[in-house]
Sequence to fold (192 residues):
Amino acid sequence: MSTLRVLVLYAHPNHDMSRTNRVLRAAIEGLAGVTVHDLYDCYPHLFVDVRREQRLLLEHDVLVFQHPMQWYSAPAIVKEWEDSVLENGWAYGEGGDKLRGKHFMQAVSTGGHSESYRHGGKAHFTIPELLRPFEQMAHYCGMVYLPPFVTHDARDTADSEIATQAVRYRALLEAIHRGDVPAPFHTIPAED
Ligand SMILES: Cc1cc2nc3c(=O)[nH]c(=O)nc-3n(C[C@H](O)[C@H](O)[C@H](O)COP(=O)(O)O)c2cc1C
Fold:
């Protein structure tokens, strides 16, 4: 089985104040076959270099968005990145096949507890439901959508639990790099 090159787009608007994402990120930095690309560090004013980002995508097989949940979605630069990088004729539409067959995953942290993210809970929706625009983005670009890697209660959880979660994250990305990819997680009906 050939190895897969993993590109982690790290999007934390306030990395210096991060508890959870900084530990998860530190656990994967320097891993063979894993590139960590800090979007806010590269583009503090949100002016994304489209050609650079597209080149990076072409050099990798797996795309990971790592970010805190903000207003039940991703920080602004993720949206800006999608809107500018995923061009018609490149990522979708006529001739737009550059991402076809790649894998897509999200590693998200929430301030809310896991019990909030259910029907009847404080957040009302599950994480996969809230991430559906990303699932559909991946589907539209012909990418294989993988289950999200979720860290709940990210502000209050014990340091030891964050450390354990970081070990899990590292193991997951190492497995993906080896080609041991989790089963797809599509909620979109197969015929669509
Ligand atoms: C602007 C903003 C919006 C947020 N929205 C949510 C949200 O919708 N759901 C949630 O669970 N946490 C929300 N949070 C909390 C963050 O997700 C949480 O602080 C983060 O995941 C902690 O990770 P970190 O230690 O890496 O910063 C929000 C935080 C900010 C600053």
Remarks:
- The two ends are 30 Å apart (CA to CA).
